[in-house]
Amino acid sequence: MKTGKLVTRMLIGLLVIIMIAGCTAQPTAAPAEPAAKVQKYGLFMSHMTNAFTIEMSDAVKAKAAELGVELTVYDGGQDAAKQVSQVETAVTQGITGIVIEPVSVDGIVPAIEAATKAGIPVVVVNQKISKPEAASAFVGVSNVDGGVMEMKTAAEAIGGKGNVAFLLGPMGSDAQLGRTEGYYNVLKDYPDIKVVFEQTANWKTDEALKLVENWLQTGTEINAIVANNDGMALGALKAVEDAKLLDKIKIYGLDATPDALAAVKDGRMAATVSQSTTAQGATAMETVVKLVKGEKVDPEILVSFTLITIENVGEYLK
Amino acid sequence: MNKTLRKSFEFSSLREVGIFIAFFVILAILMILSPNAFAKPANLVNILKQASINGILATGMMFVIISGGIDLSVGSIVALTGVIAATFAHPGEYPLIVPIVLSVVIGAAVGLLNGVSVAYGNIPPFIVTLGTMTIVRGVALIAAKGQPVFNVTKLFEGIAGGFVFNTIPHLVVYFVVITLVCAFIITRTVFGRRVYAVGGNETAARVSGINVDWIKIAVYTLSGFLAGIAGLLLASRLVSGNPTAGQAYELDAIAAVIIGGVSMAGGAGKWYGTVIGALLIAVIGNGLDILNVSSHFQLIIKGSIIIIAVLLDMKGKGKQ
Q1: How far is A94 from chain B, CA to nearest CA, in Å?
Q2: Does residue B4 lie within any of the structural domains?
Q3: pTM of the full predicted structure?
Q4: 3-state DSSP call for residue A244?
Q5: CATH number, domain containing residue A265
Q6: For residue B218, which of A70, A99, A242, B84 sits 20 to 30 Å off, Cα-Cα?
Q7: What value of ipTM does the predicted structure carry?
Q8: Secondary structure E strands in B106-218
Q9: Cα separations in angstroms, A14 against B29, B134, B197
Q10: Per residue of chain B (320 residues), what is the pLDDT tens digit?
Q11: Best residue in A23, A205, A268, A272 to probe B by mutation, most B CBs within 10 Å?
Q12: Contact B147/A258, CB-based, under 8 Å?
């Protein structure tokens, strides 16, 4: 009995060691002789659990391959502390350049400062950090512009007057604040448009579905539902279709995810806005390599949004 | 037999009366505040529909908690089985039976793994299911490549999206049928009584000849199986499988069970309490959405109700 327990414990211990070894040994490139310094780049993603982050990391990886540099991708798992320690570890191990899509726009600042102090260029992508000068460059889009593009399209489509409802991302997140600010900037020009509902569904399709089902129960007239992202827009779409109100309520999203593009193609969603994720990722990778080579770059590089409707959706469907 | 039947419907503590009173008071308040929207029959059907998936999860959770355990993995199982179901529901690929069977079998398999680890590994259920919760979420993300799986058949959408007699959503029918079957199992079968016995006093149950390990394995498998059904239904309802869906669903299910009067220590609780618990959570969410109350305030209200329910429980026990 006792030896049995001991054996089990040893086996578990062995298993843990193997797992840890398996995790750390991912970049299998053999260490070259120390004289010829290998250029190792790191991409630090906030998480890898949705269409956006996957597209972003794929774009960075593709660009790295094209430029012939070695790239390791770190998944922050939506944990700000984890991402900080990932960056710190990479810096002590002598990384050449960093591309980071931050979990926390405040929490990551000290780690980025430590990296740049150590002479390692840091390019922040998509989410601007609270102290932009800490990083070498920012590549992204202005969320406000995306919100403006989405809301303007919706406002024009409903003839500049009527009721709209907003589905918001997690309150206080950079994208939620910026996109929603964009909505209200547009509404200044449309005094006849009234916001009848405004609530967060935390980027989630299931939460948005329930929320819109409940809104529709009130009988309040809604002419358009404008969502901070496509996942929530698709939840709204299902609720509206179930209530057989699709001819009365137009639905707008942002992100251009594959399922939203399919809905735009079928004419069920009115429009979505692409934040040109692939272009952001590719530009970020290019920028960090330029910085390592000692070239000068703009501290802020903005990639423009693209409006996607039934007319041009074909170009974006893969 | 007749005696146990009657006994199972008696209100045995202040708490169980309390939950019914609380439910109808909250219902009445919302009806007064919103007579034109909340109190409409169409909205009451809507509430039942929104309670269904949590209600199905809560029913499985109830068995686990009565047996003295806890199952944190159900939310992740919902995500995984939803993703698998949607993956096998693309038009022109597999017959409808494939996604249905796969999701319930995978759900039950994860539950079986939980049960075996708890029963034979002697690992605390909180830790086992915390582990599988994390693992299964990872598997769901890998299976879906981190993105929603969409483009499913109309037939698949109809599983949860259809209506009986054009009025009652299919979801509600599943909820009612599953609840009644589980109510029968927990109140009228030897197995049901043994679940209470194991949760009440495990040593006594073992001494009296109950195969405690088998009971534990069975309740976790049942919980996983029902989570598989819930995952299938959610995927059908969302017309897609979302690897990030179902987050914190385990907490809503546990909340429904606790509000419904099931003791976290195991061995006590009634099935109809769990039903009321699930309905109460849906009623509050729906009513507050209709009144346009910020979702942040909704969290405070939901949390307060859970604590009040447990307070009532302690008071009720003190008086016995």
Answers
A1: 30
A2: no
A3: 0.80
A4: coil
A5: 3.40.50.2300
A6: B84
A7: 0.83
A8: 163-164, 168-169
A9: 60, 21, 39
A10: 444 444 444 445 555 677 788 888 889 999 998 888 888 888 999 999 999 999 999 999 999 999 999 999 999 999 999 999 999 999 988 999 999 999 999 999 999 999 999 999 989 999 999 999 999 999 999 999 888 898 899 999 999 988 888 889 999 999 999 999 999 999 999 999 999 999 999 999 999 999 999 999 999 999 999 999 999 999 999 999 999 899 899 999 999 999 888 888 888 888 999 999 999 999 999 999 988 888 888 889 888 988 887 777 666 655 44
A11: A205
A12: yes
B122 in contact with chain A, both atoms CB, cutoff 8 A:
no
Query: What token pair was written down for A29?
Result: 């490139």
Q: Phi and psi of A307, rounded to 5°?
A: -85, 130
Residues B37, A219: C-beta atoms closer than 8 Å? yes
**Owner of token pair 């582990």:** B131
Residue among A49, A214, A258 minimizing CB distance to B243: A49
Specify the amino acid at residue A218. Answer: T
Domain that holds residue A82: 38-141+277-303
Query: What's the domain count of chain A?
Result: 2
Interatomic CA distance for residues A19 and A7, integer angstroms: 18
- Domains contained in chain B, number: 1
Tell whether A24 is covered by a domain: no
Any domain includes A133: yes
Structure tokens at A83: 């991402």
Name the residue range of residue B168's domain.
Answer: 44-319
Whether A135 and A281 map to the same domain: the answer is yes
Give Cα separations from A200 to A197, A289, B276 (angstroms). 10, 38, 27
Torsion sign over Cα B138, B140, B145, B146: negative
Proportion of chain A in helix, strand, coil states, percent, rounded to 5: 45, 20, 35
